[in-house]
Design brief:
GO terms for molecular function: FMN binding; NADP binding; NADPH dehydrogenase activity. With 361 residues, the chain is an alpha/beta fold. 32% of the residues lie in helices and 15% in strands. The strands form 3 sheets. It has an 8-stranded parallel barrel with strand order 3-4-6-9-10-11-12-13, surrounded by 6 helices. Strands 1-2 form a two-stranded antiparallel sheet. Strands 7-8 form a two-stranded parallel ribbon. α2 packs parallel to α3 (148-168). The two termini are 17 Å apart. The structure holds flavin mononucleotide.
């Protein structure tokens, strides 16, 4: 059996293989609630054979949405709506389900990417954004620097969202501290210029992420992992050294895994994108912590994924675009690597003639 198709653990959650579907915003929710699009999209991904499907960034408050069409979990009604999606998937698939909880901070209140992704004014359905400091991202409007009271409210919103996620039936919670969104904005000295105990030193900039992690962890019995950007790819920004410190601190608090992405905080970022471009960051962190690291970013080939796991660069790999392009990627990977994969009984007859024995049912 390949390393890619061996079982793995995220906290006390067992995954049937090392393939994770990365969270992907769909900009197709209605007032924070999933729509038929989610049933179709998630239903397709749920038949992929991946070990874990992490549902898109889901906002813990209305103003934390990237766009007006993001999923939300700021009320019990929205928790119930997500529960119905979870139940639909569970009726037909054994895939494990995670949810990514987030807040977009100063990158909130923008249009859907396919409509240009520009900041929305009040008359276009936009709203005032919140951030650690009154520093704008790119050409977006300047956000309001959060008061201590607003910081306390956001912490509570993450805790309430996590409780609702557990009640909705998810197997795992991922906190979104990557891609220049609110928690990343607190980590990076480029966006956090606070002078209270949430800004300044590395310890202070990490405080909010660690406090939210602790409170969420105490509120639920599910494994809780964190997604970070390992670097801002900019002079003077958040970097791999800070990421290693953060990963160590999270591990000491019982974090289930660290999901290692990069970038998204500064328009000045200089990234040379190529296959595996973020894997060295996952590897550097994996070498420093015992909890699993998840590598992500332009992992598209089965042999490439297998090599990352086999050489211990990371314990898991995640795919985003590759899984949209080919929602049966794990089937094809199993065929390529000479493994077996379980498929829904409705699809068993599709086993190709030259691959007899691929489907383990
Ligand atoms: C359509 C789309 C939506 C995304 N939404 C999210 C998201 O909600 N949360 C997140 O952390 N990353 C998000 N990402 C980033 C992906 O999870 C992933 O890290 C990135 O696309 C690199 O992986 P890939 O090369 O396999 O696509 C999104 C990416 C795409 C393509």
């Amino acid at each position: 059996m390949s390393h890619l198709f061996s079982e793995g653990q995220l906290g006390d959650l067992t995954l049937s293989n090392r393939i994770i579907i990365a969270p992907m915003c769909q900009y197709s929710a209605a007032e924070g609630a999933p729509t038929d699009w989610h049933s179709v999209h998630l239903g397709t991904l749920a038949q992929s054979g991946a070990g874990l499907l992490i549902i898109e960034a889901t906002s813990v408050t209305p103003e934390g949405r990237i766009s007006p069409w993001d999923l939300g979990i700021w009320s019990d009604e929205l928790g119930d709506a997500l529960q119905r999606e979870v139940e639909k998937i569970r009726r037909w698939s054994p895939i494990k389900l995670g949810i990514q909880l987030g807040h977009a901070g100063r990158k909130a209140s923008v249009d859907a990417p396919w409509k240009g992704g520009k900041a929305l004014s009040g008359s276009e359905g936009g709203w005032e954004t919140l951030a650690p400091s009154a520093l704008a991202f790119s050409e977006n409007p300047t956000p309001k620097a959060m008061s201590s009271e607003e910081i306390a409210q956001i912490k509570q919103a993450f805790v309430d969202g996590a409780r609702r996620a557990q009640r909705a039936g998810f197997d795992l919670i991922e906190l979104h501290a990557a891609h220049g969104y609110l928690l990343h904005q607190f980590l990076s000295p480029l966006s956090n210029q606070r002078t209270d105990n949430y800004g300044g030193s590395l310890e202070n900039r990490m405080r909010l992420v660690l406090e939210i992690f602790d409170e969420v962890k105490a509120a639920v019995s599910l494994p809780v992992g964190v997604r970070i950007s390992a670097t801002d790819w900019t002079e003077g920004g958040w970097d791999i050294d800070g990421s290693i410190q953060l990963a160590r601190a999270l591990e000491g608090r019982g974090c289930a895994y660290i999901h290692v992405s990069s970038g998204g905080l500064s328009p000045a970022q200089q990234i040379t994108i190529s296959p595996n471009y973020q894997v060295p960051f996952a590897q550097q962190i994996q070498q420093q912590v015992a909890m699993p690291a998840i590598a992500v970013g332009l992992i598209t080939e089965p042999e490439q994924a297998e090599a990352i796991i086999a050489t211990g660069q990371a314990e898991f790999i995640a795919l985003a675009r590759g899984m949209l392009y080919d929602p049966r990627w794990p089937w094809h990977a199993a065929a390529k690597l000479g493994d077996k994969i379980a498929v829904a009984p409705q699809y068993q007859r599709s086993e190709p003639h030259h691959l007899r024995g691929l489907f383990s049912v």
